[in-house]
Amino acid sequence: MDGNRPDPSPRRPTMADVARRAGVSRATVSFVVNDTLGQSIGAQTRQRIHDAVAALGYRPNRAAQGLRTRRSATIGFITHETPERSFADPAVTGAHDVADEFGSRLLLVTTGGCPDRLRQSVDDLIDRQVDAIILATSGTRAVSLPDGAWRLPVVLLNCFEGHPGHPGRPGRLTLPPRLPTLLPDEQAGGEAAARLAIDAGHRDFAFLAGKADSWATVERLAGYRLALTAAGFDPRRQTLVHGPYEIDAGHALARRLVATGPLPTVILCGNDRMAVGVLLALAQAGIRVPDDVSVIGYDDQIGLASSLRPALTTVRLPYLEMGRAAAEQLLCPDRDPAMPAMPTTTTTITITTTLTTATTGLRWLPCLPVVRDSLGPPRTSP
Question: Is residue 297 located within the same domain as residue 330?
Answer without folding.
Answer: no
